[in-house]
Amino acid sequence: MTVPDLQKCKRDRRKITVVTAYDALFTRIIEQAGIDVILVGDSLGVVVQGRANTLSVTMGEMLYHTKLVAGAAQQSLVIGDMPFMSYQASADDALRNAGRFLQAGATAVKLEGGAAVTDRVEAMAKIGIPVVGHLGMTPQSVHQYGGFKVQGKGKDQAQQLLNDAKALENAGAVAIVLEAIPAELAKSMTETVEIPTIGIGAGPHCDGQVLVLYDLLGLFDDFVPKFVRPYAHLKADALEALRRYKEEVEQGKFPSDSESYH
Ligand code: KIV
Q1: For position 131, what pLDDT does the model report?
Q2: How far is the CA of 19 from the centre of ligand 1 (A)?
Q3: What pTM was estimated for this model as a whole?
Q4: Spatial CA neighbour of 39 closest among 1, 8, 86
């Protein structure tokens, strides 16, 4: 999957599948399933590092996980998620940090925000760095929202998001993630721009969907938003396996003779 392939998916009305990954093992499994795009999301701050939000994730941590994923990926397009304060303070910072993601093996970077970041997007696009925008409930602004809340509900907010989507497209973004916004608004945004929209909690009309891998697999259940569909229950399976292991070791049933060397 390449950046031009993404645009073709939208033209051909073929839905784009995206999931997050943070390591080589899951990257290989995701590729075997034929998923189009892997996002090395700063959601790793929550699902891997156990924090309450994504704000403490650093460039060093993102680059480390990007290298693990990009090193294992052979077909899927890998997007590196720019962490908090890696692009907000200055355009210069933004450009250099975006470049570091490509050097770590990503094909594109993602950053949050609309009109406020279009100068960054434009600068990156100009030097050949594909950029994915992220609008709606952007987790790096969680404190401004007062929590993880659906955005774009009022008329003015909805219009602002439509304008932001257009501004990102004009700045050269190659796709836009739409997070936690009403499905009708996501539909209008998808129809307004020619670049693909990738929804998460944004209804069925986007050009593609993204889920956090550990949510999709039912591994992370500290907080399960309404838009998550767990396609497996791996936390329950893991718990069951670990409990059985403990029981069988304690009862002397593991290892058996055939699991021992002689
Ligand atoms: O960090 C992440 O995983 C994301 C997705 C939820 C879109 O930004």
Answers
A1: 98
A2: 9
A3: 0.97
A4: 1
